[in-house]
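Dear Dr. L.,

I hope this message finds you well. Following up on our conversation about the binding site, I have prepared a predicted three-dimensional model of the protein together with magnesium ion. For your records, I am including the exact sequence and ligand specification that went into the calculation, followed by the structure tokens. Please feel free to forward this to your student if that is useful.
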Amino acid sequence: MLSMHGSGIGRLIAIGTACVMSQESLDIPEYLIAKKHISDEVHRLRAAIAATRVQMIQIRKQITVDSPPEATGFIEAHLMMLDDPMLAQQPEELVTRLQINAEQAIARQSQSLIDVFEAMEDEYLRTKGDDIRQVVDRIQKNLMDIEPISSTDISDEFSDPIIVSRDLAPADTLAMKSRNIRGILTNLGSPISHSSILARSLGIPAVVGLHAATRYIRHGDKLIVDGRYGDVIIAPDKNTLTAYRKLKKQTLAHTRKLDALIKSPSVTQDGERINLLANIDLPRDTRQALNVGASGIGLFRTEFLYLNRAEIPTESDHFNAYMRVIRRFNRQPITIRTMDLGADKQLGSNSETALNPSLGLRGIRMSLGRPSLFIPQLRAILRASAHGRVRMMIPMMSSLPELFQVLTLIKETRKALREEGIPFNPKMQIGGMIEVPAAAIAADLFAPHLDFFSIGTNDLIQYALAIDRVDDEVSYLYNPLHPSVLRLIEMTVRAANRAKIPVTLCGEMAGDPKLIEVLLGLGLRQLSMDPANLLEAKAIIRQLDVNKAKKVSRRLLAGKEV
Ligand code: PEP
Ligand code: MG
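The resulting structure of the complex is given below.
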């Protein structure tokens, strides 16, 4: 029995079997083939490609019917690549002509294809190189008889898989939504990295930032994952297993008890009503938001519509996605955030191209620079506004000229729709996220131009405390109660109140039971959170007293203990 400790995600415990994902780069062998063995080598190559095809078809079958269409699109695109003569025939010619082994032939051919894509101007096409890499990696593993385990094809070997991986990109985590995953363990990551947020919304326990999980945990090991405290137990003994089974039941029972609160009002002891909204990543998360009685969608992270798919979403893809949410939440507000791509949510995995991606081209900065991605989304949001209480929200606002540029673009898009006779709500509310300290400090200057604010504390903390939210080495510095973070929140709330515009807080802080009191004390009355946290938050709110909360926040703002 061995135990490890990292940052826990979720409120549950998982007991299952380790499914270690190999992410090491492969050592490709290189040798010459005698002339008489060339046809055997070609045959070996064909067999590996055929095996790859069978595996992919198998994965496609495992995609459940309610999975997002992008999940199938991803696999279809990879299957098509296998049939492309560039991968199916050219390497055979290399084997024959240069008398090299199949692994080398496929490596050389794929590298020249990747080079072609990477030289392309269009950023989206450049990411196609990653797809080639993934397909080729699978062919190589088949050639070398290495068990292919990757985020997109978790083997069916275990009925209770716990994913153990060096890292998970948000796109990988998203792909797991359709799998029967019991838990996730990663070497890297912090509690507010996008992958962790996604893991939380999967409703399965995870522990991130374990440093050496992939070194100490072997494929097939029995594991206990305690998402509440970040504990991992490898090969537990009988007594530990029994104790955790009991705990697991208790945590589940507690969750059921919370279900009784769905219809109860979210009101403090002294009668203050707190509006609880839901954060969603994909339209299908709406179901969970409804199940916990959320009073609307406070944050729809639309960038996930761009991930794990072969093509960029069109205007109608966007519109259809928004309509799926509107149909379920037809009377409540739906806050659609324009795409926040960049940083750890890249199209493909080209994050290495930016020197410092979280300070680089991300959110509204990227949108303004990529009108071909952004305009279809603006049009779709405006069109959706004719059908429900849609609000548009701008991520990563950092300067007024940038805001004016967005507002002008929205105005022009409205004009175009009007000329085309396409209906939209001309009064659709436009809000901005306050998640860059510059925007919090100058919130009073932004407020007159916007209909609402939403405070994104995940980024606000990252930028205010200078701690990369995906870097586990500095996650010990993550402190949402740091007086400077609380002061930035307070400044924003004050600016919103003065300008008489509503303000919500939609970072992970909103759903943290320990932090709700201070947020109420700072004047927040609207919180948007992962639906998985909403009922627990309501239970806490119903116990709180706003006057007492104000005292708590005053002490913390002054840097005192409570
Ligand atoms: C935030 O930054 O707090 C936020 C809600 O946005 P995201 O986590 O998607 O960056
Ligand atoms: Mg953010």
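In brief: The longest strand covers residues 13-20.

With kind regards,
A. P.
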